[in-house]
Amino acid sequence: MGNVKLTMAIMLQALLALTLYGYSLNALADHATLAKEGGAQRHKVELIRDKDYKCLQCHKDSKKTLAGSHGETAVDSIGSELNCTQCHSNIGPDHRDGASTVIKYHPAQSQPGTNKTWLDPEAILKANSRCTECHQPEPLRKDSWTHDVHAKNLTCTNCHSVHAEKAKVLSYDHKAQIKLCVDCHKDFNEKREEEGK
């Protein structure tokens, strides 16, 4: 009877070991098969959290802005998704009280012309520094000579609409571009005419 109990105990241990290790080997084999089949394709985890959610609670009209020139097209250009604070600085919960710490972009932070307010070159470079973090100067120079001529005298927002709806920030046709130049240089031309009289 002792041999039967011993034999049963050994068989149960073997069955238990086989069950545990057999399952592990089977799982390991399946994992190796999946790893070979998957190859370079990895599961990408995307967070659902909207980084601009808090901003959009008050700035509801900015939802369209995010889909514009600095929205989805920026992902293709710079390889990462933009959010409000990347351009407008780190905004705290009480930023309304200290709104001067928030970087704002106005249509004319410096104004061209003879009787208009000018920013000093240091202020202009500071205002343009956020833009040039992504928009490198070399490609801008190649794109248009105007970038070189105006770089130290005007802010980017003099000519460019930062929150344009179209993919290109300066998405004007040729006539509209000329009008933009004429609008700014009009008083220079008037001054020349007066001096010429």
Description:
By secondary structure, the protein is an all-alpha fold. Among the domains are: 50-88, no CATH class; 108-197, no CATH class. Helix content is 56%, strand content 0%. It contains nine helices and no strands. 5% of the residues are buried.
What topology does this entry show?
Layout: H1 2-38, H2 53-58, H3 62-66, H4 72-78, H5 84-88, H6 121-134, H7 137-143, H8 145-150, H9 174-196
Question: What tags apply to this protein structure?
Answer:
197 residues; mainly alpha
Question: Uncertain spans, ≥5 residues at pLDDT below 50?
Answer: none
- Count helical runs: 9
How many β-strand runs? 0
Q: How far do the termini sit from each other? A: 131 Å
The percentage of residues in β strands lies in: under 5%
What Rg do the Cα atoms give?
32 Å
Range of helix content: 55-70%
Secondary-structure element string: HHHHHHHHH
Sum up the overall morphology in one term: elongated
Structural class: mainly alpha
Please, what is the average pLDDT? 70
